[in-house]
Design brief:
Length: about 280
């Protein structure tokens, strides 16, 4: 008769309070993984446990709450966050330049199950509101997932008070990174991808002194607002489209009717991963 070898076995919970002999091997029946013991460490050392893959995705386009999964084999989450986009700047019809709004920052972070609270607050940054006067556009709001990641909102498109002079302050990040850089995402272990910058308007000095507003920053799933002269016109600045924190288009001749474009809201996407 063939002989059968059967190792000691138990659930993840049972392993947590078990200290095996040095060199002993047991089977975790929750994960179907192997655990090697050293004679002193409760729970031993899990080996040969792979991921079963991504089991669930949550996509937040408005603020809310993430609830930590209770499954014993829940391993970690991947959080992708985008800040709100800035509104386009408003000009006064002169040769003073304006910029389209700048896109909110994009950041990604991996958070292990043990580092998560039972719930985590999700805050979605709103896009900056349009302007009806010669002024810098409103900034987009920050998007956050608990204290783990902050994706900064994009700065509103600038309006220069000096003819022909373009501004270089393209970031509203309070951490003090250099001007001219896009908004960024911050947090422990965060990978920062930044955001697309809005473009300046164009001024043509001729018999009609034509102006064309700056295109709002936008890449990925969002689209920046178009440039133009008057909102609602076929060539007019438009609000950003989507939830990718894109910036609104600027208006070189801003008024109550000829407004700049508003920025788009941000988002948070959460991917859950589990062991076998």
């Amino acid at each position: 008769m063939a002989k059968q070898l059967q190792l000691r076995r138990g659930t993840t919970s049972e392993h947590a309070s078990f200290t095996g002999a040095a060199g002993e091997v047991t089977v975790n029946t929750t994960t179907n993984g192997i655990v090697v013991h050293d004679g002193s460490t409760a729970g031993g050392h899990a080996v040969g446990v792979g991921l079963s893959g991504m089991a669930n995705v949550q996509y937040f386009t408005s603020s809310g709450t993430f609830t930590k999964p209770t499954a014993s084999n829940f391993s970690f989450i991947k959080v992708t966050a985008r800040g709100g986009g800035g509104a386009g700047g408003g000009g006064n019809g002169s040769s003073r330049p304006t910029f389209g709004g700048h896109q909110g920052a994009l950041g990604v972070v991996i958070i292990q199950a043990a580092a998560l609270g039972s719930t985590e607050t999700v805050t979605i940054g709103s896009g900056g509101a349009e302007t009806t006067s010669a002024a810098t556009g409103a900034d987009g709001g920050d998007t956050t997932f608990g204290s783990h990641i902050t994706a900064r909102g994009g700065m509103g498109g600038e309006y220069s008070t000096v003819n022909y002079t373009f501004l270089s302050g393209l970031d509203n990040d309070a951490s003090g990174i250099a001007n001219g850089e896009p908004a960024k995402a911050t947090g422990t272990g965060v990978i920062n991808f930044g955001g697309d910058l809005g473009q300046p308007n164009q001024y043509y000095y001729n018999s009609t002194s034509q102006h064309q507003g700056g295109h709002g920053g936008g890449s990925g799933a969002g689209s920046g607002g178009r440039n133009g002269i008057a909102k609602g016109d076929i060539h007019g600045p438009t609000d950003a489209v989507g939830n990718d924190g894109a910036g609104g288009g600027s208006s070189p001749n801003c008024s109550t009717t000829d407004r700049s474009g508003a920025g788009a809201d941000g988002y948070v996407m959460i991917e859950e991963f589990y062991t076998q």
